[in-house]
Amino acid sequence: MAAAYFLHNADLLILENQAGKVVYHSAGYVRLDWYSTPASDAEVQRLYEAASEALLQYGVTGILTDHRDMRPLSADLQHWLVSTWTQQAVQDCGYQRAAVVQSFNVFSRLAAAQVVMQLGRLPLTVKYFDNEAEAESWLLEE
Questions:
Q1: Cα 30–31–37 angle (5° rounding)?
Q2: Which residues share a beta bridge with 128?
Q3: If DSSP codes are grouped into helix, strand and coil, which group holds residue 14?
Q4: Which residue has the higher pLDDT, 114 or 7?
Q5: Please, what is the Cα angle at 73 between 61 and 65, to 5 degrees?
Q6: Could you report the per-residue pLDDT of 86-98, keeping only the tens digit for each?
Q7: Helix, strand, or coil here: 78?
Q8: CA distances (Å), origin 66, targets 1, 51, 69, 91
Q9: Does 105 score more than 80 pLDDT?
């Protein structure tokens, strides 16, 4: 696992690369913040892998993923998310809830929706939001 660095309010930066960053949020969830800069599929995969490692390490079950600046995912990445990463995160890490702050880019929105539609019957609840305050509030509901 990547080295973790403290941010404000005891949040921990788990990983940052060209695609974005993964943060363990002290309220009790993992956060993915996506950047608008071009990034390789490998960098995007590494962020997702760091997110699942953080779920497991900190014993949390939710991810807030801020897609506002996210670039559209390649077809290969979409396939990997459906066939590999999400299933492993649910089964191995206890991933149960995803709060998605929707992208400004319509193609990114479509790619994310395509992935979610293909997840089938996984015990994962995904909900979409227009702002992060509502996303966080829903994610932390019990």
A1: 145
A2: 100
A3: strand
A4: 114
A5: 30
A6: 999 999 999 999 9
A7: helix
A8: 22, 13, 8, 23
A9: no
Could you tell me which of 20, 19, 22, 25 has the C-alpha nearest to residue 51? Answer: 22
Q: Please report which confidence band the pLDDT of residue 113 belongs to, taking 50, 70 and 90 as the band edges.
A: confident
Residue type, 3: A
For residue range 20-69, list pLDDT tens digits in order: 999 999 899 999 999 999 999 999 999 999 999 999 999 999 999 998 88
- Strand ranges of the sheet holding 29-34, from the earlier edge strand across to the other edge: 5-6, 12-17, 20-25, 29-34, 62-66, 97-101, 125-129
How far apart are alpha carbons 86 and 81 in whole angstroms? 6
Can you tell me the distance from the alpha carbon of 113 to that of 93, in angstroms, rounded to the nearest whole number?
Answer: 22
pTM: 0.87
DSSP assignment, residue 82? Answer: I
Q: Which two tokens stand for residue 29?
A: 């969830």
What structural domains and CATH numbers belong to the chain?
A: 5-140 (3.30.750.24)
Q: How far is CA 64 from CA 31, 53, 133, in A?
A: 5, 15, 10
